[in-house]
Predict the structure of Dimethylhistidine N-methyltransferase.
Amino acid sequence: MYTFTESYMVPQAAQKKSALEEFRRDVLEGLNGSVKKLQSKYFYDKEGDRLFQQIMNCPEYYVTNCELEIFQQQTELLARMVIADGSAFDLIELGAGDATKSQYLLQHLINAEVPFTYMPIDISGNILSELEERLSSEIPALRVRSLEGDYFEMLQKAVAFTLKRKVVLLLGANIGNMAPQDALEFARRLRAGLQPGDRVVIGVDLKKHPRVIREAYDDREGITARFNLNLLARINRELKADFDIAQFEHYQHYDPDSGACKSYLVSLCNQVITIGKKEIPFAKDETIYMEISQKYTLNEVAMLAADSGFIPVSHCTDSKGWFVDACWVAG
Ligand SMILES: C[S@@+](CC[C@H](N)C(=O)[O-])C[C@H]1O[C@@H](n2cnc3c(N)ncnc32)[C@H](O)[C@@H]1O
């Protein structure tokens, strides 16, 4: 047994500059549209990572507990999904975060001496450093090769490292942070990046009582509100803007018909925000659309697989039937 932790991409000054330029472009484009919006991938700076870890511990945020239950209690079944024919593979996790759940699977695979390399991909370099540090002390025998950046750019690099078969994890209902049409395009793009026989294990939050869903994204302690408002603070700091955070309020809406749970920030007054040299006017009660957390039925999950070129092979749900981890094979 040995420890092998490799950080693939150390962000260089030029890369940081271009990431900042892209952030600026996306923010200005999002706030200049007829409907103002921001991209939720920018939530995850250091403070955003910390707040998201607090959200995962909120009593109302059932999403993590349900998937954690699956990873703790059905580890053997999950392991069978990824081990497949027993040949060596690369286990690529998209948006790995702190790998709270996948860690159970990783430990199980290491205990069973399964030959694999773990490749976590995340846009947050901060969370990847934390993850690498924790994994190297908690599962020292694990081979880790982490990639910092956007899902597909990094997936392309990850699949090219070796000729081994690939198993891709997309947990935590990350797919729900895309509108259904975008999720379908994402799944098709994912399929296009894989070879027939490669596998995906995807965590999807299921439709349930609408109040349970709404409360999960509008916790009493206001952590989700702070998580959303933190993006304005990040824009202030990184893009030299002057949002008055106290003049915005978090608002959450769940539509049981469409399964779309959406978060917004509402401007509490008429105000003009400056970002660098650009001015952005806000009317009182005008909203910024921040994030979608789309909910599905089991049937819709199977349709998503079929429509994107995957074959659903098996799935596990938690004891309440609120969350599913489904295994798809690239057809
Ligand atoms: C909701 S958290 C879930 C984390 C983890 N999968 C879990 O289940 O606990 C989303 C994670 O995906 C990452 N992320 C979001 N958008 C991304 C993107 N476009 N490319 C890469 N990572 C992304 C975030 O930095 C964050 O760590």
The chain has two domains: 14-58+231-294, 74-206+296-330. Residues 1-10 have pLDDT under 50 and may be disordered. The pocket of S-adenosylmethionine is lined by residues 41, 44, 52, 95-97, 100-101, 121-124, 127, 150-151, 171-172, 174 (CB under 6 Å). The chain has eleven helices and 13 strands.
